Amino acid sequence: MRTTCLRCLPPSTKILRLAPAPSAVPFTPERANSLGTVDIHSHYVPSSWPDLGDGLPRLRVDSEREAMIMIGTKEFRRVEDNAWNPHVRLADMDADGVSVQVVSPTPVFFAYEETGDVALHVARIFNDIALEICAEGEGRLLPFCQVPLQDADKACAELDRAMANGHRGVEIGNHIGDRDLDDEGIVTFLQHCADRNVPVFVHPWGMKKTPRNDRWMAQWLSGMPEETHLSILALILGGVFDRVPDTLRLCFAHGGGSFPYWMGRFENAWHNRADLIATSEHPPSYYLNRFSVDSVVFRPEALRLLVDTLGADRVMVGSDYPYPLGERPVGAVVDKSDFLSDREREQILFRNASTFLGIQPPI
Predict the structure, then answer these.
(1) Burial, 179: exposed, middle or buried (Cβ in 10 Å; 0-12, 13-18, 19+)?
(2) DSSP letters spanning 317-334
(3) What is the pTM (predicted TM-score) of this model?
């Protein structure tokens, strides 16, 4: 059984400085000559963890460099040592010009289908292991915790514990069963994050399996964009942005899913079918400055849509490292997007993430 470690990250340098905060955890990207790309979206899988119980993930180790995440007797996902070895991760970051990387849980570990007590137990195990992995990352790996989101009280308490121990933010799934982000318990948690000034990264998960979307990875290719789109709608039409202060730092994975493409349809419906959907205080376009998205959209045309819809100040580089549907080299779509001004490119590569994470970039 792996023992937990609550060590903090190394002291900061002049390259990156943490904004003052009572629970701030300093870091030193020693191998960076200047502030390079900040990757807001990556995941980890530990090389081992204690038995979590029936129906919960376990790891089948196939070699020193390969393993399979198992759910019961079913193979879920093959992973390699770049999922748990910080030195392999750092080498890949160096190759891609990434100074700092946010390291978040893999959503299969959320345990949202379980009781709050079980999910809390799982969260504590993985949050402590994440600190161990990131502690070997020369200060360049910033851990985001997970919480038992199905129980607001337990989620708030675990967030506070994890942040005090060295986590820099939290990753949550975009729903709990049929409860979306406008659910009262989830709103309570988001309010707690706003009060604590904790950045929140929202990742789609739990896509429904049907005969139609169980082919060709359709759950990932169409289900994930749909899930994210629906949850942004819930935040707006559910009145969450009207209730939670604009200090909440919120970022959606995978470019906000299909939401940016259909923003015009959403706005049109709010005005023309107000009897059904005008439940927010303002039209949808009013809330576009309340959240950010990552850049995992792969094509310059898609990135241009994000910038045109949300603004360059609302897009941050993400890679989905180390998974095969992610982007390598990290930030490639930004490099290929010749429509960006120098200032916009700088915003997307690191300045927006610096604000999101509470990092002080160079002047």
Answers:
(1) middle
(2) ----BTSTTS-SSTTHHH
(3) 0.87
